[in-house]
Q: What sequence folds into this?
């Protein structure tokens, strides 16, 4: 008759360590249950009794006891492997990620995106390389590799044949003639309706604006002008875009610029900006029109200043009519121009620009440069 399975005689250190684990009970559950098995076996309990005590199978208890007799207390910390052998190698995982991030049409499939079910089926039938993976395992693999299901975004690439030449000209005038560079653009349409925004409020109790579906007062367009050298923004609301309104804005820029010297105006490549009357007027008044490339309005310096103008006058607003909306726009422009830069900084910059011009022998309107503040 075979002898019953039992732990060998414990040493004092082993017995104290097992008692310590049992009394504290703060270790992980695996160490705790295995320590209980060893102490119970050392106390003379048989396998069926120990198995009922720790709610485990008798074979599990037998394996732990044999392992203790071989390596001692090191058996308390199991050296678990990863279960069954890996079905996918690292190369296979790279292939799965590359397939998931490739448009299905490029792989000969008749759909535009990869649902998990279709991607799993395709991987199982791909020619020359069969990848056997379940849908949930595939989802976990993609998440682990940083691949998520996202909405597609669109973008426009400029097809302007003079793309580089136009950008080079804009960069040249901004670098060499910043005091004589201006920008012009429109934004809109601006309707009369409550517009959502953001504000400080008690948590869960934000300010609320009334909603309306009626557009009874038409729309306007803000025609903005910006002086790069002085960091000054001004403009006016018009009922529509057009060459006449563009010409009026250019005349206001010419009046704001220094008399008698050429100025440079950066504006979008829009048909209302480059009519025959506008080009003729520009030649006669020493105004060079620097057009941004098609679909590249980001090159216009005024674009960055339209964002705050929208956020602080239109967002979170409920203007009753267009005159009130226009007055609020002009109030913000006055505040913005008065607080854009510190007056001392502006004065120092003007003196520095005047010094540079005087060294180069440049005269404004035939008058010598003054270095006074």
A:
């Amino acid at each position: 008759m075979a002898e019953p399975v039992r732990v060998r005689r414990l040493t004092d250190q082993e017995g104290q360590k097992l008692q310590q684990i049992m009394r504290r009970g703060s270790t992980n559950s695996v160490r705790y249950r295995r320590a209980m098995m060893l102490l119970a076996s050392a106390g003379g309990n048989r396998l069926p009794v120990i198995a009922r005590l720790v709610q485990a199978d008798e074979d599990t208890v037998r394996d732990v006891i044999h392992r203790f007799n071989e390596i001692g207390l090191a058996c308390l910390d199991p050296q678990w492997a990863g279960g069954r052998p890996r079905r996918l190698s690292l190369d296979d995982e790279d292939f799965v990620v590359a397939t998931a991030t490739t448009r299905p049409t490029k792989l000969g499939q008749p759909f535009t995106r990869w649902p998990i079910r279709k991607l799993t089926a395709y991987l199982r039938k791909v020619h020359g390389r069969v990848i056997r993976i379940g849908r949930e395992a595939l989802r976990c693999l993609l998440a682990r590799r940083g691949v998520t299901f996202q909405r597609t975004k669109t973008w426009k690439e400029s097809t302007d044949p003079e793309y580089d030449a136009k950008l080079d000209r804009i960069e040249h005038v901004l670098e060499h003639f910043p005091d004589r560079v201006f920008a012009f653009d429109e934004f809109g349409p601006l309707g009369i309706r409550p517009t959502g925004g953001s504000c400080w409020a008690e948590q869960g109790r934000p300010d609320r604006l009334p909603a309306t579906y009626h557009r009874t007062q038409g729309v306007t367009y803000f025609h903005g002008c910006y002086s790069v050298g002085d960091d000054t923004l001004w403009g006016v609301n018009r009922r529509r875009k057009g060459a006449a309104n563009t010409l009026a804005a250019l005349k206001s820029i010419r009046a704001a610029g220094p008399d008698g010297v050429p100025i440079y105006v950066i504006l979008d490549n829009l048909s209302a900006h480059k009519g025959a009357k506008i080009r003729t007027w520009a030649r006669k008044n020493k105004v060079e029109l620097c057009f941004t490339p098609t679909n590249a309005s980001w090159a216009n310096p005024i674009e960055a200043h339209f964002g705050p103008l929208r956020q602080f006058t239109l967002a979170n607003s409920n203007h009753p009519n267009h005159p009130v909306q226009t007055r609020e726009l002009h109030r913000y422009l006055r505040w913005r121009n008065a607080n854009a830069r510190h007056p001392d900084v502006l004065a120092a910059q003007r003196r520095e620009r005047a010094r540079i011009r005087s060294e180069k022998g440049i005269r404004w309107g035939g008058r010598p440069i003054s270095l006074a503040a």
